[in-house]
Amino acid sequence: MFRRVEEDKAVSLVATVEANQWLDTTTEYGKQYHYIIRRFKKPAAGEVESDLSAEQTVTKDEFPPAVPRV
Hints:
Blueprint: E1 2-5, E2 12-13, E3 32-36, E4 40-41, E5 48-49, E6 56-59
Antiparallel strand pairs: 1-2, 1-3, 3-6, 4-5
């Protein structure tokens, strides 16, 4: 999993994941993050890697809900 933050030009490897999902716990409120995925597979004949995925952009803007009032 590769990521770049805000308007950075360079991407950096942020995680190596073996599952089908991953949660980025290092994000900060109000910042925009751009993610790119590349899949690696190790068949018996060697290593194979996919093309890079299309870039997906996410802005962290979630707040927890207010405490209910009675």
